[in-house]
Amino acid sequence: MTLKVDLHIHSCLSPCGSLEMSPRRILEEAQAKNLDIIALTDHNTALNCPTLLSLAKNTNIVVFPGLEITSREEVHILALFEHLEEALDMGQWIYPSLTEFPYDAEKYGDQVYVDENEVILGEVSVYLGQACSYTLEEIVDTIHQHNGLAIPSHIDRPGSGLLDNLGFLLPQEKTRFDAIELSRYYWLSPFPIPNKEDYPCLSSSDAHFPEAIGTLVSTIDTEEKSWQGFCKALHERQIKAGIFPSNI
Ligand SMILES: [Zn+2]
Ligand SMILES: [Zn+2]
Question: What distance in Å separates the CA atoms of residue 41 and residue 47, rounded to the nearest whole number?
């Protein structure tokens, strides 16, 4: 079967995410868009994943818990997991590497995690949009130690993409990235984009507000709507990034 996946979504816990992005609203929007698998990837934290996973149990949407980590080099990288504990452990590893400074929610945006009824459970006082002190290599190692997938996000994007910060992309056997994510503007990138044959390519919405969910997806051919089914499709390159015109 062919499944629609959107594996890069921010909630109200990301400083740049809309307050409307509660786990409940994200799930409703994903259902309305007929998505099969989604991932919650807040900046440097997985604290809204427990609520989203719990809500998703009553639906036919599979949720991968995850994070979008900012490395020391200012490179954004998605960390996707099968199990909640793996994502939360990853968040606990990241947290002490973030710098504490007086946080102004008015200025940078709210960072709240909520329950199934959108009641605020708590807020994070460390600015989550900052770079952590770990290198990209350390982050990839730790994602893999937690059985996760390491996928640099929007590699073509200025500022926070891998190509703008590092200027190059080594072959997969060196980087050990499980895939790469290209943004919807990849065709504007001044950097050479790797061949689809060199790396499995994904594209996702990077949604920060509800309407954006599912506006850019990837499709996978798989026998199973599950983590295992997704990993197999990735391994066998049975995956198509929605940004490539031939795949639309
Ligand atoms: Zn990003
Ligand atoms: Zn993002």
Answer: 10
